[in-house]
Amino acid sequence: MQISKKSSIQFVILMGLISLLADVTYEGARSINGPFLAILGASATVVGFVSGFGELLGYGLRFFSGYFADKTHRYWAISIAGYFLNLFAVPALALAGRWEIAAALIIAERVGKAVRTPARDAMLSYATKQMGAGWGFGLHEAMDQIGAMLGPIIVAVVIYFKGGYKTGFAVLLIPAILAMVVLFIARFLYPRPQDLEIKTPEFKTKGLNPRFWIYLFGISLIAAGYADFPLIAYHFKKIGVVSDNLIPIFYAVAMGVDAIAALLFGRIFDKIGISVLVFAVLLSVFFAPFVFLGNFYMALIGAALWGVGMGAQESVMRAAVSELVPSEKRGTAFGMFNAGYGISWFLGSALMGILYDISIPYVIIFSVAAQLASIPFFIAAKGKYKAAI
Questions:
Q1: How far apart are the first and last CA of the chain?
Q2: Residue in 306, 266, 293, 285 with CA at minimum distance from that of residue 30
Q3: Which residue stretches of the chain are H helix?
Q4: pTM summary value
Q5: Mind listing the domains of the chain with CATH numbers?
Q6: pLDDT, tens digit (0-9, with 9 covering 90-100), for 323-337
Q7: What's the maximum distance between 2 C-alpha atoms anywhere in the chain?
Q8: Residues 6 or more apart in contact with residue 350 via CB below 8 angstroms
Q9: Of 272, 369, 256, nearest in space to 311 by CA
């Protein structure tokens, strides 16, 4: 049974609310993970490795969870299990007394996200077909990033009132519980989200359209050159350009810009396709010199530019994949795509952590070069997607 467009929009908003609360939880934590690891005695190389390895698992394992979701069609069960690990690893950080334990929990949080994301995105893709993939994923990402903005603000308030990092982690138990409650409500209201999609004939081919692989290579270059925020926050603390209580605020600014960029670039994607990423890269490529070389205000601008790139990636990236593949293969496709993205993110993050310990300008050169190198691939990948797995 196919459900109305209104129900599809309601489903996207409901899933956006879950993501909002989830992001309050884990993005609040991610805004201080770098400085927290530093306090516990970790080096920049360790911070870069932990961040990158967490992203590697967070994206790489999505291939397997997505494939499993398509095989079993148990989208809700997989999402619920993933959200549970994703969310409750965060307040557990309040109990960590060594950087090794904190690193394990940070990585566990990313594993939980890997488990639940392909199944969730597959469910979202069914609903967004009726409202435009770019707009639907952009709306979801915008709500997601509102939470990502609120989380760091909450943590910043806690630190400001001398609560400390561990108290900040503990407070994040509240949005974690609320997110799980809303998730169970969504499961009750929409037990079969696949019914939300408009059914149209699908012309299948063997393998993927060559444009998919060109697009993936371009996105992988972006992932490799995009410094993870824990390394940026580590730099802020080490150099002293931003005070401890303001580091989460900088992250909140980035997430607020991310939300606006997701809506804007999502809309533009529905009009012109993947070309919108070229413009996004030309804006965000300057974040590295601003955050790693600038004073307080330049660092703030750099954080905002970092948010521009993240917003474009999170909305357009998923929207393009949903346009490329038939409904019954979307879990697998999202998993496959994210695996490549995550491997690139890990390699880039680990390398930038090593480069940081050698010379900060090396980090900037690598980041800018990798991002600019993606542009020819996005230009080559232009066109309307019609292929399927």
A1: 24
A2: 306
A3: 5-39, 44-60, 62-72, 75-88, 99-128, 133-160, 164-171, 173-189, 210-225, 229-239, 247-272, 276-284, 287-293, 296-324, 330-358, 360-373, 375-380
A4: 0.72
A5: 5-191+205-380 (1.20.1250.20)
A6: 666 666 666 777 777
A7: 60
A8: 48, 49, 52, 53
A9: 256
